[in-house]
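note to self — DONT lose this again. spent like an hour looking for the file last time. sequence + predicted structure for the chain T wanted, 454 res
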Amino acid sequence: SRVFTAQQLLNLPGYTIVVRMDSWRAAPDLFPDVLTALVSVMSIALVSVLVLLAKDTRRRLRAERGLADALAFRQAMEDSLVTGLRARDLQGHITYVNPAFCQMVGFAPQELLGHNVSAPYWPPEQADEYGQRHTIRMSGGSPPPREGFESMFVRKDGTRFPVLIIEAPLIDAQGVQTGWMGACLDISEQRRVQELTRAAQERLQATARLATVGEMASLLSHELNQPLAAISSYATGSMNLLGDGPPGPEGMASLALAMRRIAEQAGRAGKVIKSVHDFVRRRDEAREAVPPQALFDAIMPLVGLQATKLDVHVELVLETDLPPVLCDRTMVEQVLLNLARNAMQAMDQPAIVQRRLVLAVRRAGTTQRTAHAPGWLEFSVADGGPGIAPEVAPKLFTPFFTTKAEGMGLGLSLCRTVVEQHGGFLAMEPNRPQGMVFKFTLPVAPPVPAANHH
């Protein structure tokens, strides 16, 4: 075999050393080959681990950047909300508030975080009540309503404002509740708009009542002229009796009869004026239990005036043993009067000979429109007029739409508004063989519990 030789002379102080190395090719040995293989495998594994570690690091960085972006997006979204957000743990401590909540109540986050009872934005006189409700809520004894509940908050400057609070449980990734998240809405502006709308609606209804009486002025003057003329006639006769000297027994009897007739006619005129006054006067909005017969009794004097002028026969049909309805009496009387007047005016045509107005009340059947509450009565006003054209029907309840030259277009619109404010509905359908029927529903008044006598 070939031998490779190498030597090197080393000069050391006091010594001279010759280093010689001989090498030759020998047969393969097992141990050096295994060692080389292990080193190779470990090198490959180390490179693979480094590559995987680099990929994992890049994924982790991307995930961290995504999480940071998501947190920044959520923070920007929460900061841009006008809804106040408030989080509380199961002990009731405030753990989070967003800028909108702080702006709403006027307190900084550090003044709110960690507070339990009582919160600095609670009204002092209601702190005990709020505290009890808070304790019950935190114990899980009374879950918050899904539609929320109204409350009153106090700003740092002492001003008060109503809020709508909607709360939901905070659930972690393991499905365990860790607290409550509440959304708080300042409803001051909503309340103000509601009050303005209510006031405007009241003024509009008062205007409509006055317009109704104005349209009936000629009927009222005709009805008042008769008793006034009779009073004048009886008064003139009495003056004539007294002008001839002291009357005798027969004269005194005639004079007493004339005085009674004057009193009767004055009472008749007073009833006409009272019926108008009761209809026009503005009452506080209050709902009470009213028998259906009483509603019709209130409007029949005014209905009768127009029925007499237009030669309309009025029929009143009531089921027996009807319960009272819960309603604002003045508003419902206006609805009935408007519908009755519209029906009589529809029949004021020479071609219509049989002029019949039917006012009816019956128990309403359960339908999709009445299923949301138990107990309804259905009022209907039917006429024998020419009916309503198909192209007019969709616009009939639109405010200021009218088919009359002198109409304001408010009557049917206000009728629907009043009925819907009571939870009912107003609808119309053809009357057979001719005419129209307007129907509306009102809720039955709840029964008054009988008093216990001991």
